Amino acid sequence: MRLLSPTDVRGLLAAHDLRPSRALGQNFLADPNTARRIVRLAGVAPGDHVLEIGPGIGSLTVALAEAVGPTGEILALELDRHLLPVLAEVVSDQPHVRVVQGDAMSVDYRTLLGAGAAALSWTMVSNLPYNVATPLMARLLDEVPAIGVLSVMVQKEVAERLAAPPGTPACGAISVKVAYHAKAAVVGVVPPTVFVPRPKVDSAVVRFERRSSPPVEVPSADALFTLARAGFGQRRKTLRQSLRPVLGPRAEEVLAAAGIPSLTRAEALTLDQWAALTRAADPPAPSGPAGGAS
Ligand code: SAM
């Protein structure tokens, strides 16, 4: 199978009179070795069902099609309709690649993947536009349990934040969400030289493996994420201050009940501590009258 070189990428863009859109984060992969490396890092195997978000002109799509073979399937979701004729040309000899035009931020994934798609039955592999990477990963982790393994190439700093364990300096609210849903790790760094046009920064691949059950108990995942967003919304402030918008005057008391010093900052809290805070903010109703029936 022929993968796209820099000459191929430039030639296809020129032949279709296309200029890459900055607004859509169009930096096209133009290096067969990197395309195959990303597929290898993702652990894609023959027969897999793979969702690719933002296939562009197909640089990664062809490598994915090669890896899943005729018994697998690639579902490629691209927003930019101008790219579709090029993509169709590049994958024309790949009957197991299905291209759909749509917006990954708003598409109905149940319909896209099939209402009957079993949990963890899909893999997602994508080179994501930097401006949608974080909200898109949040949406996929929260709402699409059919995707079990997700491997995404993003700006290196974004990759480090996505994979940072809560309680470490690089973490943010998204890191709390990621840690709740998945095990994540940065598995490779990719230089700007392998893209057309070249971005200004390094990229990195993050691999997420969805957990079969959350590692902490909380009354509601939404409550946990709301607290984390508030905490990191003002990350330089102490939690006593940053949690006030959601906990009001109870902030200090809730922190004490969770065993967290009130001068702690959000980036110092581990996932277990975020969970303790969530439970303290929303204690379960007592199961019976005080003193209870004996
Ligand atoms: N996968 C290709 C590659 O590796 O060469 C292209 C990667 S490029 C960084 C990002 C791609 O995502 C572009 O093709 C862009 O048009 C597409 N894209 C941007 N926003 C999108 C969205 N909301 N939904 C689906 N695709 C989107």
What does it look like?
It is a single chain. The chain is an alpha/beta fold and 294 residues long. It folds into two domains: 6-210, Rossmann fold; 221-281, Helicase, Ruva Protein, domain 3 (Orthogonal Bundle), CATH 1.10.8. The chain has 13 helices and nine strands. A seven-stranded mixed sheet has the order 4-3-2-5-6-9-7, sandwiched between helices. It has a two-stranded antiparallel sheet with strand order 1-8. Helix 6 links the parallel strand 5 and strand 6. Helix 2 crosses helix 3, helix 6 runs parallel beside helix 8 (173-181) and helix 8 (173-181) runs antiparallel to helix 9 (221-233). The longest helix is centred in the C-terminal third of the chain and has 13 residues, at 221-233. The relative contact order is 0.11. Mean pLDDT is 94; it is low at 290-294. The site of S-adenosylmethionine has 23 residues, from strand 1, helix 3 and strand 3.
